[in-house]
Amino acid sequence: MAASNNPLLQESELRDPILFATGVGKVRFYMFTNDEEVSKSERDVQNEKPTNTNGKKLAEAKAAETGTAAVIHTTYGDIHIRLFPDAAPKAVENFVTHSKQGYYNNTIFHRVIRKFMIQCGDPLGDGTGGESIWGKEFADEFSSLRHDKPYTVSMANAGPNSNGSQFFITTEKTPWLDNKHTIFGRAIQGLDVIHKIENTRVYKEKPEEDIKILNIDII
Q1: pLDDT tens digit string along 138-157?
Q2: Same domain flag for 77 and 151
Q3: N or C: at which end does the chain have fewer Cβ atoms within 10 angstroms?
Q4: What is the pLDDT of residues 5-40, one digit of tens each?
Q5: Where is the PPIase cyclophilin-type domain (predicted)?
């Protein structure tokens, strides 16, 4: 126990501890003191409207990637795609984000069937790989769009709500795919490139020669 005449204790009794603090959602700081001489009338009693921290976090969150057009640069030429973000926002966001991040770069058209479609988007190149930007499968997005004309761009899947990264471009009308595959775009230029890929020699639906996506530009 310290002696009663300890000068350190005597000095501490004379001190007024002061605490400075901030508040969540506040734009000011606060001072707390035991000094009884401070007049209450002089204290700041004004309150600002708290900042909406949830709104701030949402504002700071990165906006979803989207776009209305894309150019797929392949070893056979360029394919221009019109995208439908209103009809399939998740599918377009997935495609656009993957494209911007180079996910599809140097992947091949791994499945080609004449009078039907050309398929790509699998980094493994055998139809078993690929994932969405969320790291899991995402839900189908069916709209009024139909597979009623060739050059329709749709998500490949393994059943309902199993979309990942793979997609295909039809070369004919394919109405049996309606409400089974999410349509998120249509090819509008480079149709000759699509048919060139469609007519390449294949073995068990896989082109004998690797036909690659070099990269994809989002417009």
Answers
A1: 999 999 999 999 999 999 99
A2: yes
A3: N
A4: 556 556 555 566 677 677 666 666 666 676 666 555
A5: 73-218
Structural domain total, the chain: 2
Q: Which domain holds residue 134?
A: 69-218
Single out the residue of 83, 72, 33, 25 nearest to residue 194, CA to CA.
72
166 lies in the same domain as 208:
yes
Q: List Cβ neighbours of 72 (8 Å cut-off, separation of 6 or more).
A: 78, 79, 80, 81, 190, 213, 216
pLDDT at 63: 73
Cβ-contact 138, 88 below 8 angstroms: no
The residues annotated with a catalytic role in the active site are: 111, 116, 119, 157, 168, 177, 181
pLDDT recorded at residue 107 = 99
User: The domain that contains 98 carries what CATH number?
Assistant: 2.40.100.10
71 and 79 in contact (C-beta within 8 Å)? yes
Q: Determine how β-strand 167-170 pairs with β-strand 117-120.
A: antiparallel
Terminal alpha carbon distance of the chain: 78
Please tell me whether residues 44 and 81 are part of one structural domain. Answer: no
Do 165 and 130 form a contact (C-beta atoms < 8 A)?
yes
- 94/145 same-domain check: yes
| HSE-up (13 A, CA, CB side) for residue 179 | 1
Q: Is residue 10 part of a domain?
A: no
- Report percent pLDDT > 90 for the chain: 70
